[in-house]
Write a structure and sequence with these properties.
By secondary structure, the chain is mainly α. It has helices spanning 3-58, 62-146. The longest helix has 85 residues, at 62-146.
């Protein structure tokens, strides 16, 4: 494979790796946001339970108790929905990480191939240069011998 093709392939794979890294960043951010949401719902539920407890100490009628209980049930439902979203976001983040790691391996493989090609080209150039110097030395030797 020619160097130009290797350079093009390397750029393509690096761009693809950059896109994978960006997707990973987005997925991890979404996962962190869901963790924050879950903590917020849990904190709000705890605060609401404290209010219920305080109101119960002062005495509450059954309608108010039912209202508190229904709202707590809605918070529990919201918590379950956020947990589902969090698990999905975590799975997506893990999948994105796997794709990024595989893509990084491809980039490294192309880099290795490119470096080997550069090294081979360098050795070939050094040999050609050495042959040229040898030819010059031979020509000088012949001239000295003849002259």
């Amino acid at each position: 494979m020619a160097m130009k093709q290797l350079n093009t392939l390397l750029k393509y794979e690096q761009d693809k790796s950059d896109r994978c890294a960006e997707q990973l960043k987005i997925a991890e951010n979404e996962y962190q946001q869901n963790i924050t949401r879950l903590q917020g719902v849990s904190d709000y539920r705890l605060e609401y339970m404290k209010r219920l407890s305080q109101r119960a100490e002062q005495g509450l009628d059954s309608a108010t108790y039912s209202h508190y209980h229904a709202f707590i049930a809605k918070l529990d439902q919201a918590s379950e929905q956020v947990e589902i979203a969090m698990r999905q976001a975590k799975a997506l983040a893990e999948q994105s990480k796997d794709l990024w790691l595989k893509q990084r391996q491809k980039v490294q493989a192309v880099e290795l191939l490119r470096n080997k090609r550069l090294q081979k080209m360098s050795v070939t150039a050094q040999r050609a240069e050495q042959r040229m110097f040898d030819e010059i030395a031979t020509q000088q030797f012949i001239r000295r011998k003849l002259g």
